[in-house]
Write a structure and sequence with these properties.
Chain lengths: 498, 498
């Protein structure tokens, strides 16, 4: 890079590098908080993280930025630099759109709501929770209005755009509306068919050290680089750290062994994306993952397109036999059946591949209405119950704990994130469809355990691109078209039988 | 605290709180670097830590500080606030005495020297090491001159004063000169006597999970609070983290089991000091440990005054038998003999209680001469060899690896730290002597495993004081006198036989 001729851009580059390095310390401290920190350290840790966040916010809101961004736009930049500038500008527009006092108030109120939620949920205390959530919603609506005004978007779109740049709720509504038409019937058909199938259950217990060993072997086999990452345990699995040092987490229970393994494979998809972002641009926004849906497309590619592929169980089976001894349930066909078992349930994070999108459609519809002012907190239970009836045929009345109180997202102030899960599943199916064009024998490769072709495709088309292109262009370049939900439907119908 | 009437002090208070919180993130990231970080993460981590250090330095060097400190001195402050202001002022004087360019240059040069040292030491490459160390020394001398000018101290005293406020090299020289007179003869006597003793060696192997369990039990028994701390493994044991979340580390080898246990007990002393600093002042300099010698006095109290006490092996023995099965060497008297075995050796960190101070005396004499310009890097090997001959009767010629290249301190630019180890041992003996006045049956209590009296004394006199008083006043209040080396000599002669 020749920054000597581009002083405004060079200044921005250095600022982003500084922010990236401080973000590194935040990521590691947050990872430690979830994995290793003793409980007595929590208050001091939260205060420390908030202090650094304040410093970083001040840097991001530097009043000289408007001028520097304008000047940098006039400087000679190569394609990557121009893309980087676009991403810097995007972040800055959001930062300066919201008054600092509102950000601070929101941080306090969401933190209190989330904290209270942790004890309200087990008590099924909807009234207590709703009181707090009303406060959160009021502030998030304000924030969404500020952002919407600055970005020329509707309030909900302004929130969605943070996680999924360029995506609009009208598109999500169309995609999800389509899903609503065929998904419930498909679920019923599959349930009826699977009711007649013989599936052998897993027979535990499955000792945790052996589960950990199986997971580590699988993560390694899937190409995760342990010289630049770790696998640990946390209450809620996540992928944290930084691209140079990716921290995967998982969780174990000793009566089951597939959940931890599939969860770990899911996080490995996130992890390989992070580890393979464009290294020469690390520290700059252009080297960040493109969006949350694209991130989920990687974890769900690993979990659903690879691990739940009919050819993959052959590779899991010997690992499980070696770790836990032989049992009939470990036979590959049976393992595959276990991994593709469909059973409507109340809890999103326990849902199977086919019923999962129903949970997302429901949340999207409700949270969009909440942010756009078409619904209030008190309307949530009825909306929830109606959608669960329509989509999964389940009754949720009075069960707030396993209904609208089950997720951390809303109490934490995260609105606009939920759609990314199912958009990611759609993208993952689209990548697999595209792969079949350049790797016609990809199914045979997966059967044979030859995954280099698959990883090479992902590296070239997704990982190495970082945020070089807007999402639609990334999808176009990778698969010849923007998001096309037909691939997802075809995938589900092929796998679960139409 | 009524900060509303003390605006300058209140500003300083808030600044220190901010620095403490950022320091929290540095401590945890540094702990992670030494315990969990995969090797590929090192460059990014070092860059992140350096970035935050730069931000913190800028805050500490805020040009408005001179005026604020002067104003705060005029404000009504209680005793703790006044002590806090004294400590803030002390740190600021040091910060503003050294030009920022010199600090940055020193950071780069010491980092390079330390990095090169890691591969030069195994190769015994004195010439290569000396070339780098000359550069380090030149910069540290400059820094020491700047500090000395600002503080009215000799260059070496200016460095020593950082770790041991108020201590001067003339005092250290007197204390260590006295040691030099009686220590070599005592070592020879003890060696001759111990040569005739029967001591049963430990018979390994000692599986690491069992060692870890013994260490955890011991740490807990010694009162360390695992709700506010952890015990992990690192290459070089240390105590890190923050008072609210203290991170002890240790290391294990499977052919031995006492080294890890005693090392862990040593770190527990550091840890309990940190965990029991005055909680209502946490985040302010007045709540920091008084000095490095006082810190070492706590770790060495736990290791030498407690664990190596003749009555303590009774409490170790059953733990070891339970973990590794019975063996004759675990008999309490034999354990005590093993823990008090004297054998002059080349390596400081492997030295026993009696020969350890010889290593420190030698380093102090050499580093003082280096900083004061009375010796050069090329003189070190001859000075080292002469002192090792006089003090321990050992020949070190041509063995640089196990001579002046054995410690990380000088390549890392740490001059003025070494004396604290032996000053700490002296203070530890003084605390035990003082304890005998208020707890006349302290020996019987240790035999009985009743340690609450001991811990209560340390809590009241050392831990809870933080940096409330200058070191001499702390010692005076705790033991009725300032540092008096007679207690240390008496302790060694009593334990090892005069």
């Amino acid at each position: 890079m020749k920054n000597q001729h581009t002083p405004a851009y060079a200044w921005l580059h250095r600022q982003q590098e500084r922010l990236h390095r401080l973000d590194h310390l935040q990521s590691i401290a947050a990872w430690d908080q979830a994995t290793h920190m003793p409980p007595g350290g929590n208050d001091a840790r939260s205060a420390a993280l908030a202090e650094l966040a304040t410093l970083m916010h001040r840097d991001r809101a530097d009043p000289s930025l408007a001028q520097r961004l304008a000047a940098a736009r006039q400087e000679p930049l190569n394609d990557w630099q121009a893309a980087n500038l676009r991403e810097i500008e995007r972040a800055w527009q959001r930062t300066q759109a919201v008054p600092e006092a509102l950000v601070e108030r929101r941080t306090v109120v969401t933190s209190q709501c989330e904290h209270a939620w942790r004890s309200q949920r087990p008590r099924n205390d909807w009234a207590g929770f709703a009181a707090n959530l009303r406060e959160v919603l009021a502030l998030v609506r304000q924030e969404a209005h500020h952002l919407g005004d600055a970005l020329g978007l509707s309030p909900y779109d302004a929130l969605l755009d943070h996680y999924e740049p360029g995506m609009r709720s009208v598109d999500v509504a169309r995609l999800f509306g389509n899903l609503r038409q065929w998904l419930p019937a498909l679920i019923r058909q599959v349930q009826a068919r699977q009711a007649r199938e013989d599936v052998l259950p897993l027979v535990g217990p499955f000792p945790l050290p052996a589960q950990r060993s199986v997971c580590e072997q699988m993560v390694r086999w899937l190409g995760f680089d342990f010289a630049h990452g770790r696998l640990d345990v946390s209450t809620h699995p996540f992928t944290g750290g930084v691209p140079e040092d990716v921290r995967l987490t998982t969780r174990f229970r000793d009566d089951e062994c597939l959940q931890a393994l599939l969860g770990t494979i899911h996080e490995t998809g996130h992890g390989r994306y992070e580890q393979n972002l464009p290294r020469e641009w690390l520290g700059q926004p252009v080297a960040l993952a493109r969006s949350m849906a694209i991130h989920e497309s990687q974890s769900l590619f690993f979990e659903m397109q690879l691990a739940a592929h009919p050819g993959f169980a052959r590779h899991l089976s010997p690992l499980l036999v070696q770790a836990f001894g032989d049992q009939a349930a470990f036979e590959p066909d049976n393992l595959h059946k276990l991994m593709t078992r469909v059973a409507p349930g109340l809890i999103r994070v326990e849902a199977d591949e086919l019923t999962y999108p129903a949970h997302i459609v429901l949340r999207f519809e409700i949270e969009r209405a909440l942010i756009e002012g078409e619904a209030e907190v008190d309307d949530i239970p009825a909306l929830w119950d109606a959608a669960m009836h329509d989509l999964l045929g389940l009754d949720t009345r009075s069960n707030y704990r396993d209904g609208p109180m089950q997720d951390v997202h809303w109490p934490a102030g995260l609105f606009g994130y939920f759609p990314c899960y199912s958009l990611g599943a759609m993208y993952a199916a689209q990548w697999m469809a595209a792969m079949h064009h350049t790797l016609p024998d990809v199914d045979a490769q997966i059967h044979a355990g030859e995954l280099n072709g698959v990883f090479g495709w992902l590296r070239e088309h997704i990982w190495q691109a970082g945020s070089r292109w807007p999402t639609d262009e990334l999808a176009q370049r990778a698969s010849g078209e923007t998001l096309n939900p037909a691939h997802y439907r075809a995938h589900l119908e092929r796998r679960y039988g139409g």
